[in-house]
Amino acid sequence: xxxxxxxxxxxxxxxxxxxxxxxxxxxxxxxxxxxxxxxxxxxxxxxxxxxxxxxxxxxxxxxxxxxxxxxxxxxxxxxxxxxxxxxxxxxxxxxxxxxxxxxxxxxxxxxxxxxxxxxxxxxxxxxxxxxxxxxxxxxxxxxxxxxxxxxxxxxxxxxxxxxxxxxxxxxxxxxxxxxxxxxxxxxxxxxxxxxxxxxxxxxxxxxxxxxxxxxxxxxxxxxxxxxxxxxxxxxxxxxxxxxxxxxxxxxxxxxxxxxxxxxxxxxxxxxxxxxxxxxxxxxxxxxxxxxxxxxxxxxxxxxxxxxxxxxxxxxxxxxxxxxxxxxxxxxxxxxxxxxxxxxxxxxxxxxxxxxxxxxxxxxxxxxxxxxxxxxxxxxxxxxxxxxxxxxxxxxxxxxxxxxxxxxxxxxxxxxxxxxxxxxxxxxxxxxxxxxxxxxxxxxxxxxxxxxxxxxxxxxxxxxxxxxxxxxxxxxxxxxxxxxxxxxxxxxxxxxxxxxxxxxxxxxxxxxxxxxxxxxxxxxxxxxxxxxxxxxxxxxxxxxxxxxxxxxxxxxxxxxxxxxxxxxxxxxxxxxxxxxxxxxxxxxxxxxxxxxxxxxxxxxxxxxxxxxxxxxxxxxxxxxxxxxxxxxxxxxxxxxxxxxxxxxxxxxxxxxxxxxxxxxxxxxxxxxxxxxxxxxxxxxxxxxxxxxxxxxxxxxxxxxxxxxxxxxxxxxxxxxxxxx
Length: 723
Prior knowledge:
single chain; 5-stranded parallel sheet; 24% helix
């Protein structure tokens, strides 16, 4: 039986079992009506197209296209349907009446106006929602004519939607929309359509990079130290990695590949190669303890790991105790004669990398683009899988908000395990710009790096700005090339913003906010020298208003909306919010809640909206999660590690000493005076990142408690302040 609820836009359906005498079945479906399905989760109802032909008494199913009616014969007891051909229209912004045939079976293209859906079907209900964008982006391009009538979604003339649609379907556009300046037009000549279809669509997150590589291969794409890679060169490296991954692919492996590298040319090529292969990338930090990297790799279930030369020395300890065989790829190293060294793992070196670029992988919008791990209160890192749809929603809004061009030069100050690094790479490559990656030595003198690199876009945690302020390197007009100064990852002090703008008076400064679970950043505030002082609170720049289609809700402890002016927990909802934690339903159920039928993520951040229409003001954390030098840290994870190492239950970790944007480090208290602090610190350094290892360990006979019987963290912090 052909069930219409399983038919969706552009799908290629094969071997559908059916009675040859029943051409089509579906609830209340009649010849020529629109076929729809209801999607699960947060997706909306989507229009699919026309299926025409006799409903019963025939062994043929007929579909319509813009050129001719196609008949797909039934053979035996099953239909073999190679494609569903839909009738498409080019919407008109002025025509509102219907001139289409009543049964939807005409062969010519219809001239339907906004009163019709994107596939030419008359709308019978004004309240029927438009199809979700995700549905129209199904990469399986049907044999029917290109459905550029989909421009009718929301607004046929919307530049945002045009750019969004054609960035996903570049083969349908004669001119791409780039940097907010060009207007796309659909392809209309059939020869152009056929030529365009000879190349398949790139995965969503890296599609723009490879398009720029094809169009402008000699443009600089990446600078790392003294090395400059063009779009063409970086694309060739990425394609070789993608081809290698496909050659050694496991049939039933998960759609994720690990990358053990630290901001090297190989690291960036690996990320692009993984995406081109159709996988999401899982970045591992060579500076992390091997046990932590191993735990992340095991949780992700990766079957392959890409390793750069700088990380090779940490690989052996990472692999110790791993419960699976991996494909180890060394894109910048030879491995001749070293296969036994890495047994039982399969090793691929630079000379064995794949050659020709593979065809672009077909993916779904819900597929993971990357998997990152955040600090977990149980002591186990929490995995956050960000989908292509999540990051696409963010990048589309970024392109709409900022006028990035191919002449821009972006900073890249974040480790690849930090989700803000995604902005640096892909906001730049969306517009054909260059990513400038400083060395660790450059980060000791960021001001010099900005000037030498001629940066136009700066993006970092506020801690770097505070560091530069302490170095007295924020001299007046010292950064004349900067156009955008963007900060995210922790609270931005007002004084830091003022000092930065003195150094970069020609730039626009914005404070972005967003947890990993809401994809990079989801609220934004633009600094205004006239009104921003009055809108700031606690000496911190506001976090502003929701970005794009995101929405915010401030609630009390009972999850009811707080009154205007009251402080409460910030909840987030919208297309950037992920579906939950990786293979962790229990943690997901605590952090993601349904309110009035809408899914919200609980950030744990306390905010206040002081005035109607005013910006959100950040007030701090409502739990034991803090920011240490821009890194989100669950103090519970530090405490769990200390309990595990000492066998002592009474343990408290606090952020100390405090900084304007969180804390500069961590101090720990243990209720057992027999513990050796030096030995404990050394043990913690073997299992935690450096920023999570306590700078100070104090031993007490017992820990103070408050009136509620809980550990009195305030009293412990006072002990630290007293010296």
